[in-house]
Structures are given as C-alpha cells and as structure tokens.
Amino acid sequence: MGLLDLLRSQCIDVIEWVDPTRSTIVHKYDMNGKEIMNGAQLTVRESQVAIFVDEGQLADVFEPGRYELKTSNLPILTKIKAWKFGFNSPFKSDVYFINTRQFLDCKWGTQNPVMMRDTEFGMIRVRAFGSYAFRVTDPQTLLKECLGTGKTYSVADIEGQIKRTAVSSLSDAIAESKIPALDIAANYDELAVYAMSAINTKIAGLGIQLTAFVIENVSLPEEVEKAMDRRTSMGVVGDIAQYTQYQAAEAIRESANNPGSTAGAGIGLGAGMSLGQVMAGALANNQPRPAQQGAPAAGGFCANCGAALVAGAKFCPNCGQAQAAPTGCPNCGTQLPAGAKFCPSCGQKL
C-alpha cells in the first residue's frame, strides 16, 4: 500500500446515515477516528437534517440533498477554520443527523388520578390516556437544549417530558372549560385541541412540536360511574308508577311459575300487596267524587225524598210526605220540651 492509499484510508469520503430503529431523533455520525477529506460526498435523505459541529460550536446545516463538501458549501466552518483560500487537506468535525419525520402513536396517560372540581359531583378524581405525535421543528435548538454532549437522542428520552406536560395541560383544559364530568366524553376533540395548543407553547423551547394529540378515554371514579348508571336507569324507566306496576306483575308471574318456592311465595305476596296498593290508588283516583253538600236547611230534610224543608213545616213541599214534629230548635239545635212555643236557649219562636 502506497503513502497516498494510506492517507486515503484515514479519510472519510462518503457521509450518510439510515435509521434502523425508527425511534432515533438525533444520531452522531461515527468518524471512527478518521477525518473528512476535501470533496467528500454528503447525503442527507428526506426527513433528515445534517449539522456540522466544530469543537462544540454549531456550524453549517444541510437540508435533504446530495452535497460535495467544499469551501462554498461550508461557509460557517470555513470562517471558523480561517480557510481564506479554501482547504485542500482533511479536517475534523462532528456531524449530527436529525430526524425531522413525525414520530407517531406515542402514548400518554395519568400515572396518578388528577383532582378536579365538578359542578355536579364536587371534588372528583379522573384518569385519562391517549396518544400523540410530534416532530423536530428546530434541529439546532434541539441539539443545544436536549442532546448536549451525547451521541444519540431517542423518543424514549423526551417522551417523559411530553407526557408530564400533556397531563398538566389537559388538567388545566378540563378545569378551565368547566365541562361537567358527564359531558367530558362528548368534548374529547375540543379538549384535545386546547391541550395540544397549551403543550406546544410549553415545549417550543425544546425545538419540537406536537402534530397530533388524541384523548382516547377519561375514566371517572367507580362511585361516580355508579351514580351515572343509576341516572341512566331512571331515564330509561320513565314513569315510576307504571314501572312499579310492571315489576309487580312480573313478580306475580315469576311466583306463579314457581308455586313450590318459599322465596317465590314471599316475592309473590309482597308483589301482590304492592300491586294491590297501586291498583287501589288508581281506582280511587278514577272514582267519581260526590258533589259537595251545602249547609243543612233550617227545617231539615224530607225523610222520603231528601228535599229541604222550611222551618216548622209539617209536610214536604216536594212529595207531600207528612213530617214528624221537630225535637230540636231549628236555630241552635237545643232539644225542646213537648209543646214549647219558644226555644229556652236562644228564644227562637217555634
């Protein structure tokens, strides 16, 4: 091997990277102790960005495409290296590839119940979970704020921060919207849009952005769910009186089908009593009510036809029936002695 071949073996002439993991966000190209030769080929694929870093200082950024590394393609690095008339010898520089594609179907969820104040149930605890998608929008900011001196940066390294921000933002969204717990399920999309906007505001300083945020479920405490089930059942039942009659009739039918069962007999007896009460109430409500009678007439009423009599009348003016002599004062009702012409109590003339 000649000297020229030895020098070439110590230089890199092709720089490219393919992500085999589908979860790597940032990858530092492994130089393996070699230097980049003048005119080396750099390939940046779609959904990638390549950034040159010289001694910890961010230099040139390359969008998707194929490049031949020359002074004209490395203006910032040329200035840092002080290559006034171009460079002919190999040089050292770190190259980072950043994935700018969307990272889909990332999961989020509440590790602990979130306290919230509900207008109907008061203080309750809710759990929620769903999914989100994100992408890198500012590669240089991501390198400075997240990677540091590391060699790789993956979804697992940042999803914890996004999950905590998502739970916090969703809790604020539910609290500020003041949506009752019973109506949260009908407002998943509105809450998701509000929460995603709040999350993006908080993580913009990391150079990433959510592209989707989905709320799959918000679960309520068991006690609240039972209350909701009871309320739903009452809505299905409708008229409670008719439902009671139906239940009583069903119980009687069941007891008739099981005549030898003690439990069936008890159920039938209770249901029969309940049904009897309900039917008695219904009959009482349907029974015509007698007309309200007026005050007793001064002379009483005819024993034959019931017509009102004039005080002291000896015959009924309606049917002519002879009337018994009055034994009480028509004015105050005091018992009168035989042959009295005036009431001894009030002085009424008889």
Written account of the structure:
- This protein has helices spanning 3-9, 75-81, 139-147, 155-177, 188-203, 222-237, 240-257, 262-286; strands at residues 11-15, 24-28, 35-44, 48-54, 57-62, 65-68, 94-99, 103-109, 114-118, 122-136, 152-154, 208-219.
- The chain is α+β, with helices and mostly antiparallel strands and 350 residues long.
- The protein has a 5-stranded antiparallel beta sheet with strand order 5-4-7-2-11. Strands 8, 9, 10 and 12 form a 4-stranded antiparallel beta sheet that branches.
- A hairpin with a 3-residue loop joins strand 9 and strand 10.
- It is rod-shaped, with a radius of gyration of 48 Å.
- Residues 1-7 and 289-297 have low confidence and may be disordered.
The gist of it:
The protein has 350 residues and is α+β, with helices and mostly antiparallel strands. 35% of the residues lie in helices and 24% in strands. The protein has helices at residues 3-9, 75-81, 139-147, 155-177, 188-203, 222-237, 240-257, 262-286; strands at 11-15, 24-28, 35-44, 48-54, 57-62, 65-68, 94-99, 103-109, 114-118, 122-136, 152-154, 208-219.
